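The freezer alarm interrupted the setup, so I double-checked each line after restarting. Inputs confirmed:
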Amino acid sequence: MSTQVIPKPSLSHRSSRWFSRNLIRIYAALAFIYLFIPVAYTFAFSFNDSGKSNLVWQGFTLDNWKNPCGAPQVCQSVANSLQIGFISTLVATVLGTMIAFAISRHDFKGRRTTNLLIFLPMATPEVVLGASLLAMFLNLRVNPGFWTIVIAHVMFCISFVVVTVKARVASLDPRLEQVAMDLYANERDTFRYVTLPLVMPGIAGAALLAFSLSFDDFIITNFNSGIESTFPKFVYVSAARGIPAQANVIGSAMFFIALIIVIVGQVVSRQRKK
Amino acid sequence: MANSKVLQDTGDLVLNRISKRYGDFCAVDDLTLTIPDGSFFALLGPSGCGKTTTLRMIAGLEEPSAGTISIGDTDITTQKPYRRNVNTVFQNYALFPHLSIFENIAFGLRRRGIKDVKSEVEKALDLVELAHLAERKPGQLSGGQQQRIAVARAIVNRPEVLLLDEPLGALDLKLRRQMQIELKRIQMEVGITFIHVTHDQEEAMTMADTIAVMNQGKIEQMGSATELYEAPKTAFVANFLGQCNLIKVRVQSRSGGKVVVSAKGHTFEIPESRVSSSNDSLLLGVRPEKLRLDGSGVNSIKECLVTDRSFVGTSTQYLVRTPWDLELVVFEQNDEGLHDLRLGDKVSLEWDSEHTFGLDGAQDVNAGADLDDDE
Amino acid sequence: MAFLQGTTKSQSGAKGDSLKKRSLTPYLLIAPGLIWLITFFVIPIFSLGSTSTMVRPQGAQIGTYVQELRFANYVDAFLANQEQYVRSFLYAGIATILALAISYPLAYMIAFRAGKYRNILLVLVVAPFFTSFLLRTVAWSQILGDEGPVLSTLRFLPFIDESLRLTATPFAVVSGLTYNFLPFMTLPLYASLERIDPRTLEASGDLYANGFITFRKVTVPLSMPGVVAGTLLTFIPAAGDYVNAALLGNPSTKMIGNVIESRFFAVVDYPTAAALSFTLMATILILVTLYIRKSGTDELV
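Predicted 3D structure, all chains:
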C-alpha cells in the first residue's frame, strides 16, 4: 500500500476495506458455524444430567459417557449397526473393487451397460430403493431382518465403492506396471507389488465411505429391517419421546473416532508421499 | 522364473524386417537393424517417427505386427517383457512412489528370486554415486537424482541390452550435459549395449558411437556422428543434424573424380565420392560454418546481400541472400579474422569443394528442418 | 491375479492401452457385483412395478394383493397425493438452490483462499456427517423447538409474536433438507473449482476483466461440472427424503416420501406405495436426463 500518496484512510473506511477483502472468509466461517451447530448441540447434551427427557438442560454430568449403555436398547442397536456396517463394507468393497478394475482396465462388451447399472442406484431416491426391495421381499414372502438389511446396504454401497476405486485406478500411471514387467515381475507379482499397494488408499477410502453410508443409513434400512433395530432407527423411533443422552454419547463418539481416522489417514498419506 | 533364462553369452541385437501398425497408421515400417553387442547406439528422430515404438517392441511392451527381434541366437519377438533380459529407463523415470530407493533398485533382483540383494543394490547405488539416498522415497529426490536411480534400477539386473527412452528430456540444459557424460561413463564401466532414444540431435551426437536417424517409421541413415554430419545421404539428415544450406543445382559433367554442377549461371564442384545420387538434378549441401565471407575461388557466389546478423557468443550468424534470392546461413567464428558486416552490405561467399556434398535433387529442401524441438 | 494377463498381446490402442484386452477376465470380475445389483436393485424395481398394478380382492385379508394390471392405480395414487408430490419437488428445489448459495462461496474459499489449511477445511466440511444424520436432524428440531434456545431468545424481542413457531413449519423442513445435503453440494463444487488453473483467472484479469466479470465469464463456466453434480446429489435425495418432514414438519408439510412410508407401514396399501415410488423415480430420472442434456455435461457417470 502506498500510504505516502494516499491520505491516511479513516478508521471506518479501513475497516470496511478489511471487511470486503475478507468477506469470503467471514462468510465461510459463518457457514462452518452453521455446519457445526447441531454437532456441538449433540455433544453438549451428551453431558446433560437429563434423567428421562433430554430436551432441556438440567446440569452437567459425566454419567452418560461412563455408562453409554445406560438407556435401554441403545447399545443393542449400535452393536447391530456395527455388525451390519462391517459385513456390508467387506462385501461391497470386494465386489465394487473388482468391478472398478474391470471397468478401468478392460475393454469389454457391455461396459457402458455396466456403467449405467452402477450409476442408477446413486440416482434413485432412497425411498424407492427401500420400497422396491421390500416389495420384492414381500412378494417372495421373506421376513425382513438382519440379513435383508445387509443385502440392501451392500446393494447401495457397491456403486460408491466402484466410483471411488475407479478414480484411483484411473490416476495410476500405467507405466509403473510396465516398469514392473520390465523388471521381471510377472502378471501376478505386478499386481501384488505395484498395482495393489498403489490403489490401496483408494480402496481404504472406499471402505470408509461404505461403512459410514451403511452406519448412517435410515430410510432404506427402515423399509427392510422388520423388527431389527439399528442405531439410526433407534434414534428415529425414540425421537418422539426425546432421545436419551446416551444416544448423544454414541453420536459424539462416532464423530471423534471418524475424525481421528480421517486425520491419521491424511497424515499417513502425506508421509508416504515424502 | 526369469533368472533361469538369464544368458551370460550375449550377442548382437537384431531387428529383422519389423513393422508395427495401428489400424491404418504404420508406426514402424519394415525396419532392419543390427546393434552390435556392447555399443552405445542412438535412435534419433522427430516425435512420431517410430523410435519409441521400436524401443517398446525391443522391451516387449508392444508386439511387432511383422518381423522378428533376436539377441544373439535367441528369438525374443513374442517373449513377455519379464522374461527377456532387457531393461528400460523410462521417460520421466517412473520410479515406484510407494517404495524406497533401495527397494526400487532391488525390485528386479527380488522378482528374479535373488535372496541377497544388498550388495548388488549398493554396488548399483555406488555406480550412480547416490549411496546416501537408499532409504529415501522417490518424491524426496530431485529430477537428476531420480534419473540416476532409474538407471541404477535397470542396470543392477545386468541386462543384455539397456533401453533409454528420452531419459534426459525432463532435465534442464546444464544437468542434461552433466548426465550425458555420466551415462557415457556408466556405459563404459558396465559394457552392456545401450540403446538411447532421443529427439535431441546434440545429445545423440555427444553420447552414441552409432546413430540411426529415423523418419516416418524408416531409418534414413546410420553411422557415426561425424559421418552423418559431414556426409549426410538425405536432405532430412542434413537438416535434422545441425543446420545446412541446400542449393538446387544441375549436373554439367562428371569426370576426373569431380562433378561439376551449376545454378543460375554459377558453377561449382563437388568431389564425386561425396555425391550420393546419379540423378542430373542435385542438391548441393554445405554447412554454415564452412562458408567464408570473402574470396572468389572456384566455388563462390558474388554480389550477395547481408540480410540479418546475430551475435551468439562463439560465433556470429549471418543470413546472406544470393543474387537469385536464396537465403544462406553463414557462421563466422569470433576470432581475429572477423568481418564486421552490417545489414545491407555486399559480400561474396566462398567454400572448399571437399566440404560440399551432393544429394538427390528430387527431395524437399526443407525436410527435417525445424522438427527437432517440437516435444 | 488374472486381469493383467495377456499384456503383451494387445493389438489395439496407443501406448497406455496395452493393458486393455478382450477376454473372459472382465466378465469374471464384474459378475458377482452385477449379479448382486441385478438381484437386489433391478429385479426389485420390476417387482415394484408389478406390485403397483395389483388390486386387493374383495373381502381378502389386509396385505393380500393379486395382479390385475390396473394402471389406474397410478392415476388414483397421483390424484390423491398431488399436493405432497408437488411439495416434494418444490422443497427439494428450494433446498438445492439454498445449498448452492451457501456452498459456492465456501467451496471457492477452500479452493482458492485456504492456502495450507485446505485439507483441514475439507475434513471440516465432511466432519458433521460423522455424527448420525438422524441425530443432527433431531438436534435441529430441539434447537429450533418451542423450548429451544433460538425461540427463547427471540421471544425477548419486542416485535416477536408470542405464538411464533419454527418447528413444524415449511421453513424448518426446507432448512433441514438444506443442512443435511450441504456436503453433497460442497464437495463436487470444490473438486471442480480446485481443478481450475489459477493462471486462467490471472489471464482473464490481464485481458481487462474485473473481478466480477472474471468470476462470471471464467470461474463459473469452468465450475459447471461441479454445479451439475452437486445439484443432482442434493436434489435427488432431498426429493425422496421423509426424515426431515417427519422430524421437523407437521401434517401439512408432508412430502411424497412420508406418503410412501405410511402407505407401506401404516395403511398397508402396497400398490399405491409402489405406484407413487415408481412415479417419483420416473420423474426424477426424466428431470435428471433433461438437466444433464441441457447443461451439456455427460461426464458424470
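Quick read of the result. Residues 12 and 37 of chain B are 5 Å apart (CA to CA).
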